[in-house]
Amino acid sequence: MMPLNQPLIAELKHEGANTRKMLERVPAEHFDWQPHAKSMSLVKLASHVAEIPLWAEFTINMDELDLAAGNFIPFKATSVVALLQMHDENIAKAITALESATDEQLIKVWTLKRGDFQIMSMPKIQVLRSMVGNHLYHHRGQLSVYLRMLDVAIPGMYGPSADEKG
């Protein structure tokens, strides 16, 4: 039977390349733009997308993360180069962590909390699929809408986009 980490690594490599294509298109001149007062700014959303893969390393190498401890400070890009560098570093860290992850580690429970408040607790493999993978794809989709609203050509993710017909 294939170890549990192998399909996760393959997915992360594939989706990491797709995510990078989206981040490459983020226009720095619109970093402060937001489509609605309740929405994140473009730079905050793009920074979050670049940062999410790091959570794979947290999930594999720790059994819990306490946000109140101050050990996690959200990334905010100052340039597109910094955004891409953060994404590439976090994908590499996530792949390295996944490569060493055993099935036993991946079925262990991981907890996210803020002080005494438990936000969630579930098997690490479930965290990797939901809070890392699906969370990333959700925000990457939001990013594509932001780019469309700014009239930036959208790269194809799973084939050509409407901007890449031909």
Descriptive report:
The protein is mostly helical. The protein has one domain (5-151): Four Helix Bundle (Hemerythrin (Met), subunit A). 54% of the residues lie in helices and 10% in strands. It has a 3-stranded mixed β-sheet with strand order 1-2-3. β2 (109-114) and β3 form a beta hairpin. α1 (5-24) packs parallel to α6 and α2 runs parallel beside α4. The mean pLDDT is 95.
Summary keywords:
3 strands, globular, 10% strand, 6 helices, Four Helix Bundle (Hemerythrin (Met), subunit A), three-stranded mixed beta sheet, 166 residues
CATH-level-4 superfamily name: dinb family like domain
The CATH topology is given as Four Helix Bundle (Hemerythrin (Met), subunit A)
Percentage of residues in DSSP E strands: 5-15%
Low-confidence region ranges: none
Strand segment tally: 3
CATH class: Mainly Alpha
Largest sheet: 3 strands, mixed
Shape: globular
Q: How are helices and strands ordered from N to C?
A: HHHEHHEEH
Distance between the termini: 41 Å
Structural class: mainly alpha
Q: Largest beta sheet: what is the strand line-up? A: 1-2-3
What's the mean pLDDT score?
95
Count structural domains.
Answer: 1
What's the total helix number? Answer: 6
Task: Based on the coordinates given, report the CATH architecture.
Answer: Up-down Bundle
Compute the gyration radius: what is it?
Answer: 17 Å
